[in-house]
Amino acid sequence: MKAEGAGEEEEGPRPASDTKNEDELLYAIPSLDTRFRLKQVSAVGTSTGTTLWLSSQVLVCYLIETERKQRRRRGAAAAAAAVATATAAAGAANTRRPLAVDLGAGVGLTSLVLAALGFDVITTDIDPPYSSVLLPNIAANSPPPSRSGGATRCGGQIITLLVDWTVASDVDALLAEADARGGADLVVTADTLYSPSIVDSLLACLAQLKRRGTQRQQQLDVQQEEEDEEEQKQRRKLEVKAKAKAGRGNKGTAKDRRTMILVALERRDPSLIEMSLARARSSEHRLEPDRVPQRVLNKAVDDHLGSCHWSRDDWDDVEVWHM
Fold first, then answer.
1. Of 29, 146, 291, 317, which has the highest C-beta tally within 10 A?
2. CA distance linking residue 189 with residue 193, whole number of Å
3. Annotated domain spans of the chain
4. Are 163 and 106 in contact (CB under 8 A)?
5. What is the enclosing helix (H) or strand (E) of 99?
6. Which of 151, 111, 118, 152 is nearest to 134 (CA)?
7. Residues contacting residue 297 through CB under 8 Å, at least 6 positions apart
8. Is residue 129's pLDDT more than 80?
9. Are 189 and 151 in contact, with CB atoms under 8 Å apart?
10. Quick check: 259 and 214 in contact, CB under 8 A?
């Protein structure tokens, strides 16, 4: 598998605006030692969700860079509490993976990258994208293959759901699936703010996922703190003081954890984007839009797509927002 399409891998991914007419993309991400084979349906008259979009490509870079930073922080914390016991090891084995929800996943690139980063992912879309590109691409790339042909070390599970966020029963099914898996830690969506008629439905879905996910995470954190306190008592009896001290430092996480929402967009229609952001801030949805600084996106794109292949002009309308 490594030799196939090697020339394309050397060039790296091209901007989606240059590949709309291609039926298949070989999409390499060197920083993850991973490549994906992505089917597209570019025939005139089909849904716009059946081809790759620039906002997804930029969002993927930001996700990889953010996860790398978080792993560096976790690594430093782990080094400070390196003394482990059999009880702690057993607990680590049962730790749930973080859960991501991808709304309007399209060809599935963002979902596949999240799985490669270690998330379990609920990936969603409507038809025709769901049946024509999302399902085939998830099936063809799960588990996410490395360039050497093996599975990634920490690949998560991908669950596919047909979800129209304007349909209440679909949203209820999505919320139930997320609740059953411990609540969403991360919700992502890319290039989904394209029509005024669906903005409020999308924002309502995002707000519900955030509220439910945050509540569920806090419940689990309280439960985990109680279990940690019991483990600490046992460790004290064994005089494993270093680990007990590190465990005490973890108190208070329950009130700090929140479900993160990331919205990637292209500012093709500035008035629509401004209206959408205003609606997100409204008392109805109570989201808190906060744009990722351009310098942060620039670095992420340069690091994970390569400035030699991408100029700023290729993606200068793309923005990523926390909500």
1. 29
2. 9
3. 53-132+151-301+312-322
4. no
5. strand 99-103
6. 111
7. 58, 61, 62, 318, 319, 320
8. yes
9. no
10. yes
Predicted TM-score of the model (pTM): 0.81
As a whole number of angstroms, the distance between CA 279 and CA 292 comes to 19
Task: Please state whether 98 falls in left (phi above 0), alpha (psi between -120 and 50) or beta.
Answer: beta
pLDDT digits (tens, 9 = 90+) for 226-235: 565 666 666 6
Q: Of the ranges 45-49, 192-196, 245-249, 304-308, which one carries the lowest mean pLDDT score?
A: 245-249
Residues 6+ apart with CB under 8 A from 152: 32, 33, 34, 116, 143, 144, 145, 146
pLDDT at 73: 74
80 compared with 25, residue with greater pLDDT: 25
Beta bridge partners, 321, equal: 263, 291
The overall longest dimension of the chain from CA atoms, in Å, is 70
Cβ-contact 162, 86 below 8 angstroms: no
Distance CA 44, CA 233 (A): 66
Give the whole-angstrom CA distance, residue 206 versus residue 263: 10
Cα 284 from Cα 225, distance rounded (Å) = 33
Query: Where would I find the beta strands (DSSP E) of 174-273?
Result: 186-190, 260-266
Please state the three-class secondary structure of 261-272 as a single string. Answer: EEEEEECCCHHH
